[in-house]
Amino acid sequence: MTRSKKQPLRKCVVTQDMVPKQQLIRVVRNKEGEVFVDDTGKKNGRGAYLMKDLQVIEQAEKQQVLNRHLKTKVDDSIYEELRAKVKADPS
Fold first, then answer.
1. Domains of the chain, CATH where assigned
2. How far is Cα 87 from Cα 2, in angstroms, rounded to an integer?
3. What are the phi and psi torsion angles at 53 (to 5°)?
4. DSSP letter at 24?
5. Which residues contact 12 (CB under 8 A, 6 or more apart)?
6. Higher pLDDT, 81 or 41
7. How far is the C-alpha of 74 from the C-alpha of 53, rounded, in Å?
8. For the whole model, what pTM was predicted?
9. 23: DSSP letter
């Protein structure tokens, strides 16, 4: 009898939905205060997850959700990078 591995669930900071980690994008603020998109999902720092959906990213930017969760000012270039990743991801 083989046991299937449990999929890790994370909560989207915009929609508050619990979804598998693979369906989310992680944004991280490290100890130096740098904010960046974490492709690996394993970098050190305070992380916030967003669904891979353009509407969710737009809502996060409009409501400044990442600013609150990461406790710092998130640059517009981060939102541009998130949009580019969502557009490039076929799933």
1. 9-88 (3.30.1230.10)
2. 37
3. -145, 130
4. E
5. 19, 24, 49, 50, 51, 56
6. 81
7. 18
8. 0.89
9. G
